[in-house]
Amino acid sequence: MSEGSPGSRMTYGNYLQLEELLKLQSGPEGHNPAPSNHEMHFIVTHQAFELWFKQINRELEDALDLMNVEEVDEKQIPVIVSHLERCSEIFRLLAAQWKVMETLAPQDFLAFRDRLGTSSGFESWQLRTLEMLLGLESEQRIGGMDPMVHNRKLHSEGKLSDEVMAEMVRIDNLPSLNEVLGKWLERTPVNGVSGDLGVLTDFVNGHLKSMEEHGESVISHMVKIGHGTEETVRPRIQSGIEGARSFLLPEGQVSASRAGLLFIESYRELPLLSWPRRLIDTVVDLEESMILFRSHHARMVERMIGRRMGTGGSSGVDYLDMTLKYRVFTDLWAVRTMLVKREALPNPKNPEFYGYAAEN
Ligand code: HEM
Fold it and tell me: Measured in angstroms, how far is the CA atom of residue 166 from the centroid of ligand 1?
């Protein structure tokens, strides 16, 4: 066919491989009778989620590639942020998408639920690779579940193709976003200096001192307004400071990544820190949007099957509610507890390094 002839024209259907795609909603081979309207809705909804998981995995891996280097090119930080922002938006869309699933009445679901057998979203390998790319560790999962063990078993039983298994192994061998983020934070210049443990320790000790001083004013304020007595308030404030100390100085040694993180969060006004700060915010936003996605799924499931066991054999809603406790970026969340209002902090040293001359 000559180029430009009507026969070679790219069409909508060609470009999207639409005919192939639209043939895939009738259930597995031999599914008899053909899916009802309700069952097709169930299949379409799952497939739509899986397509979005595919896109999220791609965005995460692109962001990871850009961050998995000795020195992250500053010009790439906005690009990394845009990959992660897209993931958050997809999760927000997916969190809302459960509403469509809720148009399925529980009785109409029960009518075909047996056809699912033991299949379950629990076996979504794309959700598992997504969690692995973010950095959710087996020890953090309920029952210490290792998705690789589960999927290797499926693979050995011929239930998962070689390609999928190879893809899972490849992703399992990549560093996670949480790991590369930690390395990047370690290199953050603190008070204008990178990688100097003495400077980091001084900064952290100075921060703890500000927390103590600020803590004293909080104690007197709380007592004054009648929110407890000195005896009840002081231990709470002190335990917050001790928590900060063991977070920033684990085993008495400064943690470079946590010091870097604290610096970025404390001195948000420094122009040079504005993109690093955006990146941190975007990661927190991504994790928050994922938690909301999980939470909306759990509520939809509760509405659909109450307290029944899941088809995957878990306790159902109780299991899903436990997954809401998952946090990958634990340091990013934890640092929030120890921030001190800006006026109570000393001005950063070497402000000119950050493109800002603070008034000292
Ligand atoms: C009637 C609709 C649905 C019900 C009743 C339902 C129920 C459940 C239950 C009970 C679990 C826990 C595991 C188990 O024991 O099976 C689960 C897990 C899961 N479901 Fe659903 N689900 C529904 C729709 C969906 C849809 C449309 C998706 C989209 C892909 C989905 C994705 C998942 C995923 C990814 C998990 C694993 C969660 C994790 O382990 O963190 N579910 N579902």
Answer: 24
Does the N-terminal peptide bond of residue 33 adopt cis geometry, omega within 30 degrees of 0?
yes
Residue-level length of the chain: 360
Whether ligand 1 lies within 6 angstroms of the CB of 312 is answered as: yes
Does 2 reside within a domain? Answer: no
Q: How many angstroms separate the alpha carbon of residue 140 from the centre of ligand 1?
A: 19
* CA separation for the pair 233, 235 (Å, rounded): 6
The number of domains in the chain is 1
Residue 226 lies in a domain: yes
Q: Is the CB of 310 under 6 A from ligand 1?
A: yes
Name the band, by pLDDT with cuts 50, 70 and 90, for residue 230: very high
Residue 103: the pLDDT is 97
What is the C-alpha to C-alpha distance for residues 200 and 218, in angstroms, rounded to an integer? 26
Cα(119) to centroid(ligand 1), Å: 10
Question: Would you say residue 133 lies in a domain?
Answer: yes
The helix/strand/coil state of 249 is coil
**Ligand 1 binding pocket mutation candidate from 39, 52, 120 (most atoms within 8 A of CB):** 120
Percent helix, percent strand, percent coil in the chain, to nearest 5 = 70, 0, 30
CATH of the domain at 202: 1.20.58.480
Which of 301, 303, 317 most suits a substitution to test ligand 1, by most atoms within 8 Å of the C-beta? 301
The pLDDT assigned to 338 comes to 96
Mean pLDDT of the chain: 95
Can you tell me which atom of ligand 1 is nearest the CA of 313? 15
Query: Bigger pLDDT: 61 or 358?
Result: 61
Residue whose CA is at the smallest distance from ligand 1 atom 33: 121
CA of 180 to the centre of ligand 1 (A): 30
CA proximity to 264, closest of 330, 209, 186: 186
Q: What range does the domain containing 265 cover? A: 36-354
User: 186-203: per-residue pLDDT in tens?
Assistant: 999 999 999 999 999 999
- Sign of CA pseudo-dihedral 296, 297, 303, 307: negative
